[in-house]
Design a protein that fits this description.
By secondary structure, this protein is α+β, with helices and mostly antiparallel strands. The protein contains 14 helices and 20 strands. Among the domains are: about 150 residues, Dipeptide-binding Protein, domain 1 (Alpha-Beta Complex), CATH 3.90.76; about 220 residues, Roll (Dipeptide-binding Protein, domain 3), CATH 3.10.105. The strands form six sheets. Strands 13, 14, 15, 18, 19 and 20 form a six-stranded antiparallel beta sheet that branches. A four-stranded mixed beta sheet has the order 1-12-11-10, with helices on one face. It has a four-stranded antiparallel beta sheet with strand order 4-5-9-8.
Length: about 525
Amino acid sequence: MKNKIIVAALAVVLVVSMTVAGCAGPGPAEKDTLVVALSTLHEETFLPWNGGLARIFYMDCLYETLTFLDPVTLEAVPGLAESWNRSDDAKTWTFHIRRGVPFRDALGNIYGNVTAADVKYSIEGVISPGSIVGPASVLRDLIDNVTTPDDYTVVVNLKSPDPLLDVGYFSQANPVWIVCKSYCESKGNWTANAQPVGTGPYVLKSHSPGSSILLERVENHWRMGTPDWKYIKFVKVPEEATRVAMLQTGEADLAPINYDSVDGVRAAGLQILTVPNSWSPYIVFGGTVPARPARWNPANPWSNVTVREALNLAIDKQAIVDTIFHGQAEVAGAQSYVPAWMNITPWGSYNVTRARELLAEAGYPNGFNVTIKAYTTSPGAELPLVAQAVASYWEAINVTCTVYTVDYASVVRPEWTGDNATWYIFPHRGMSMTDSIQPIKSAFDKNSKFVVYADNETEALKDLIYASSDPAYREQKAYEMGLLLRDKVAFIPIAVCDEPYGASDYVGDWPALSVTVTNIYKITRAT
């Protein structure tokens, strides 16, 4: 799969034109709603700080960020910031805010134009103590303060260098969405969440909790003009078979599908859109953060690196690639698909005999019992299948697994991010990113809410990375961190996966990015 990577392009652009005839229904000129069926709508909240990044499918339509990523080069291009610069030490970033961009609601009411005060308020909201959005804890440690020298200038002072802030945390690949300060303060978070006001190309028309989210386009949007689709409707459809059926009957226009559904969807006259290198399933060992005592449980058998080595060797990852992912993936050596980790080779080959020997050496000749909690994400509908496969392989070395399918947002997330040592194992997914330091900050920094692993050695290397403003040095040290994590079996990487979507013949072009699957609002209507 690496041979299709464009140099320096972590995410490959997807621009697929739909030409094959599909399901019966209204003609393209009559159909005005793009229906997107997802396995989950996640928290179904509408402020940057009261839900996770996975909401980006719909949040990306409602709000905008300071910068955007060019779909071809993945370089930062102007968004709500029309220009910016950074200090030589990469600790001070100055953003010049675009004038004349209005905040609006679904009724067409205008709440003034974006100013520096709105940007400051939004950034401070994301890093506030109550914020639960993914990178909140990372950004709390990164950002020192935000100042506004005038109405259209924002200065972000950092505690440590970040030479890629514009392509990383402040781009549309991350959730620093800009909200209207005066609206949020006057209405309060409850109303601001229920009736969001943003600058995006769509507004929230209606919301049926647990079921659907309906967006309506903004006419003559400052950046997009008038989007092709009058409405975008996101519907929650957890069952794979139901999503496929909806595609086949014309009830849905776009849906992530499992790999074993690809041939059937294509045979039905529909198109398959593939987002390359989109996500990376991996196994998280709960309670394995020795650098943070509250999240370290030495009683877990996998607190012993020898046990982790055994569990890693017991999994036939190539078989998982071939069966669950139908070859639309490759065995991974790292937690996320980022530039510094692209060429890290997997540790160890499938070897049940050696796995049993290692367990015996670690004091578990008869194995042990373990709980696995699995859930679906977007992307990541296959995580429960990965959990079942891993459990089956571990049974062969007398590790008895009980697998529960649970809800991520209400079960695993609060248990994982709480300051306690969990006692179970779970599959999660890393995302493709432009900045190699982002997964270190989110998953391998002892201070992150989503820390997966951290010990004194990884912390020392992390500190060297954070202290430098030299991108080349940071990239080299990030590569060394990837090797160190691999050799410690800090987690078990499974694969780097393409993400297939089924699409109706009403869908035209989708300039999607694998750096978090965004740009739904840019999907055109086929003519």
